[in-house]
Specification:
heterodimer, A: 570 residues, 2 domains, 24 helices, B: 271 residues, alpha/beta, Rossmann fold, 4-stranded antiparallel beta sheet, 9 helices
Chain lengths: 570, 271
């Protein structure tokens, strides 16, 4: 091979810029899209169609909310700006956190970082690239949620003119870098100054502070009768901070309001403030992070290289005993999955946070409802509880249970080589998923029926329907996970977000909606006949059908998955 | 200065675990150096420090006279690093990836196509050069990352486990490539567990154990130390796992670990 000229001098005079890196990412994106269209057009179209359904659904929901609020002009004048302010403050916080998480993983935790940083890519170019990527990854949710909100806002407001659309899109684009810059600096600070142990302690302290604040907030909101004028006044005073002029979210809200009212100059001035701050903060954040980036990278890599003791905790010890009823091979697989679950804070913390919030709400239910069980709101609340619980379970199974089979595909010894049939492997996966989800769902439902002082018959009914829903959701996640696996993918989040994951999520949501419809039918039937503590024949029949649907659905999905797995070539 | 890599008294620890302890090692230009050691000995940590990805808590590392520190851009421009797990962008073809690397290293556009053509012929990559890299086997990926490393004709090629996944023909081609580069005055720093390859192609061999350099020299010097016609495998096991060499081992005499190995030394130290 003939050699090329010495290029090191050229590199030093003109270092690699972020544009070169962006260009290669653009080529990869182009290849990805053309591959998706060429290889599986139906999959691509289905994904787009599902996205469209979600988007239209949100749009219709926001239209309904704004129409409802507009029924009273006075309330609308206060409530609509408040809804906007809440939305953007929530976005500010959520985007800062999600940017910090995504920035940390993309800056410090990928092979790409090691590759590019061992090349003559200046840290600043690399940080800019990762900053752009993080903004795109983290802000798609804002676009998905925000655009239908803003379209709905325009459509219920006859004053809005054409350039309003241009304004709110500009505001969105300019708003995103503000929490993005904060998230970037946060990720860098964590990598630079916190070692693994300190990081864990800090996360626990932050979780406790958050839980404490939530308890305080809920208790102060529910301290008075929610139907009174005084409660509303106090509530509005308490949340007034979301409209503070110092918050970037306020500039966006006020700018959008000005655009709706055709006050172009005012809208432009708010847009200018947002743009100026976004640019300034982005420049400052990238500058700070780039200057000390290599030392943060060294620290992040070093903390991963350290020896970490994984002494058996009581929870891990429990994992070996909890599946005593399974044959040895399946027991070992289920126990391995449970150990992995306990050792992966991303999995259990999400579940603990979601169910913690649920439990917090349930403890406060009696203060909120003030109704007797099975009367008026007393009948609606168990229905809402069941809905919230089921959707959380569907999220858990779609995100964490669905990828299990695909991830095992990387370990050929388990699916391909272990002397267990496909069905036995799926049963082991199901046993793990069912154990975790039933533990939390069962305890939450029992807490709900106790707080609502439900009669025993109704309590048993509620618990039975919840456990059946768990069965169905776990069966779907394991079965569809085996039927539509992604054996080549190592990233669990990407497996969950892929085509199979989307199909599983949609089917899981359909099961939840079916179960909710059944619960609604039970409620309607009992309302018609006058509430009675004893369960009648039609009630038992409806509940029986619901339970059968969940059990048969979950079992069928497992059977289909096992059949596919038997024939699969990994 | 005629040194390609100059490591002086480097120390690196991760928490309580010492990964590299007081390592001093100089690799002159035009040498093929084999870096051996058992798993967890500190080889990859040393390599990452040479590449500027990790920073030593003590000591210094220079590549072609450029200090590798927090801003080691000049040194990075002189070297190429091929990790043990080849990194490629899944949704790029090999050709697109190689063009990207060429652009990163400021290789003139006209040269890029010529070099890609030559490397594709030599490493037999023509069949898959325009396919997405996500469909490649480990060996195909290894060929592409090796080609990427050679795109800018680096002064120093640092390569971690170069032969894993390659077919025998390609192993031969890679060995020849390394030797050609060394003959042209370039340096190859190779970390490997394939002792046969190290024995066959390396000018000098260094063995790292528990973060310390326990052996350094040419194959002939190591054999002379062992005072017998022992293979590199025997010498390696004697130094790193003496319990496995209970009968018939080379019987290497060790010297105290606190006596540092100086340039030109070809002996072993007690670990």
């Amino acid at each position: 091979m003939s050699s090329s000229p010495d290029t090191s001098v050229a590199i030093l005079h003109s270092p690699v810029g972020v544009l070169s890196l962006v260009r290669v990412k653009a080529v990869a994106l182009r290849n990805r899209v053309s591959q998706a269209i060429a290889d599986s057009p139906i999959k691509f179209l289905t994904t787009m169609a599902l996205l469209g359904v979600v988007w239209v659904g949100l749009y219709l929901l926001f239209i309904a909310v704004f129409m409802f609020l507009k029924q009273s002009r006075m309330e609308a004048a206060i409530a609509i700006p408040m809804v906007f302010s809440f939305f953007f403050v929530a976005m500010l916080v959520m985007l800062t956190v999600s940017n910090a998480i995504i920035a940390y993983t993309s800056l410090f935790a990928v092979e790409e970082a090691a590759y590019l940083l061992s090349s003559p890519v200046p840290p600043r170019a690399y940080v800019w690239l990762k900053y752009f990527e993080t903004l795109i990854f983290s802000s798609w949710s804002l676009v998905l949620l925000g655009l239908p909100l803003m379209f709905a806002m325009a459509d219920v407001n006859s004053d809005a003119v054409g350039y309003y659309y241009l304004f709110f899109i500009s505001f969105f684009i300019c708003f995103v870098p503000i929490p993005g810059a904060a998230g970037l600096v946060l990720a860098w600070l964590i990598a630079r100054f916190l070692d693994r142990n300190l990081r864990r302690r800090l996360i626990i302290i932050a979780a406790l502070v958050l839980a404490g604040s939530l308890i305080w907030a809920i208790q102060s909101v529910t301290a008075q009768d929610a139907a009174s004028d005084q409660w509303l006044t106090n509530f509005l005073l308490r949340i007034n901070f979301v409209q503070s002029a110092l918050l970037p979210s306020s500039w966006v809200v006020k700018g959008v309001e000005a655009a709706i009212e055709s006050q172009t100059t005012l809208a432009l001035s708010y847009l200018a403030v947002t743009v100026a701050n976004a640019m300034f903060l982005s420049l400052i954040a990238v500058r700070i992070v780039s200057l000390k980036f290599m030392s943060a990278f060294d620290r992040a890599l070093s903390s991963r290289g350290g020896e970490r003791s994984t002494e058996a905790s009581p929870a891990v010890g429990l994992a070996s005993k909890v599946f005593f009823y399974l044959p040895l091979g399946q027991r070992l697989i289920a126990a391995k999955d449970l150990r992995t679950f306990f050792r992966d804070p991303i999995q259990w913390t999400q579940l603990v946070v979601l169910f913690g919030l649920m439990a917090l709400y349930l403890v406060n239910v009696p203060k909120l409802s003030g109704a007797k069980p099975l009367e008026g709101w007393g009948m609606v609340i168990p229905f809402l509880n069941f809905g919230a619980l089921s959707f959380i379970l569907a999220t858990f199974t779609s995100r964490f249970v669905f990828p299990l089979v695909s991830l095992e595909g990387q370990q050929l010894w388990l699916i391909g080589m272990l002397p267990l049939s496909a069905w036995q492997i799926l049963v082991a996966k199901f046993a793990f998923a069912m154990t975790v989800s039933t533990c939390v769902a069962f305890s939450t439902t029992v807490l709900a029926v106790i707080m609502l002082k439900m009669p025993l018959d109704w309590a048993v009914l509620q618990v039975a329907v919840t456990v059946a829903t768990c069965f169905g959701l776990c069966g779907f996640a394991v079965g569809i996970g085996a039927r539509l696996p992604m054996f080549e993918q190592r990233n669990a989040a990407r497996i969950a977000n892929g085509f199979g994951g989307t199909v599983n999520l949609v089917i899981s949501v359909m099961l939840v909606l079916t179960m909710l419809s059944g619960m609604g039918a039970v409620g309607y039937h009992n309302r018609m006949r006058g509430f009675d503590e004893a369960l009648d024949g039609p009630t038992i029949l409806i509940v029986g059908v619901m339970i059968a649907v969940a059990l048969v659905g979950g079992f069928a999905a497992m059977a289909i998955g096992a059949r596919h797995l038997r024939r699969a070539e990994i | 200065m005629n040194l390609a890599i100059d490591i002086q008294s480097v120390h690196k620890h991760f928490g309580r675990k010492v990964a590299v302890h007081d390592l001093t090692l100089s690799i002159p230009r035009g040498e093929l150096f084999a870096f051996l050691g058992p798993n967890g000995a500190g080889k990859t940590t040393t390599i990452k420090m040479i590449c500027g990805l990790l920073h030593p808590q003590r000591g210094t590392i220079d590549v072609c006279g450029h200090r590798m520190g927090l801003n080691g851009l000049a040194g990075k421009a002189k070297l190429a690093y091929v990790p043990d797990q080849p990194f490629l962008y899944d949704k790029l073809t090999a050709r697109e990836f190689l063009l990207f690397v060429g652009e990163m290293y400021r290789v003139p556009a006209a040269d890029q196509k010529r070099i890609i053509g030559e490397l594709a012929d030599r490493l037999v990559m023509g069949d898959f050069l325009d396919k997405l890299t996500e469909s490649y086997s480990h060996g195909m990926k290894q060929k592409v990352v090796l080609s990427a490393a050679l795109m800018h004709d680096p002064e120093v090629l640092i390569i971690d486990e170069p032969m894993v996944g390659l077919d025998p023909r390609t192993v031969r081609v890679v060995k020849d490539l390394f030797r050609e580069r060394v003959n042209q005055g370039r340096t190859v720093f190779m970390s490997t567990h394939t002792l046969g390859v190290a024995e066959a192609v390396a000018d000098r061999i260094g063995i790292l154990n528990h973060g310390q350099l326990v052996c350094l020299g040419t194959m002939a010097e190591l054999r002379a130390q062992a005072a017998a016609e022992h293979s590199l495998e025997d010498i390696f096991l004697e130094l790193t796992h003496p319990e496995l060499q209970s009968n018939g081992g080379p019987g290497i005499e060790t010297v105290p670990a606190d006596k540092p190995l100086a340039e030109g030394d070809s002996h072993v130290v007690e670990s």
